[in-house]
Amino acid sequence: MSSFLAAAKHALxxxxxxxxxxxxxxxxxxxKRIEDWxxxxxxxxxxxxxxxxxxxxxxxxLRAGS
Length: 66
Fold this sequence. Notes:
- The chain has a domain at about 1-45.
- The chain is mainly alpha-helical.
- It contains four helices and no strands.
- Helix 1 packs across helix 3.
């Protein structure tokens, strides 16, 4: 589960996963994009492994400093 959450957080931060329909995009297009991401999240996670790890390391460092 944690790898899914890390990939989803990364995708949200990068605009690859949507929480709502952006201006200029139809809800159908937004829903398709979301569905595609969920169907391929494992591939996304593998392809972005380094960046996801770097983001998680930064979060861990910030938590350790508080």
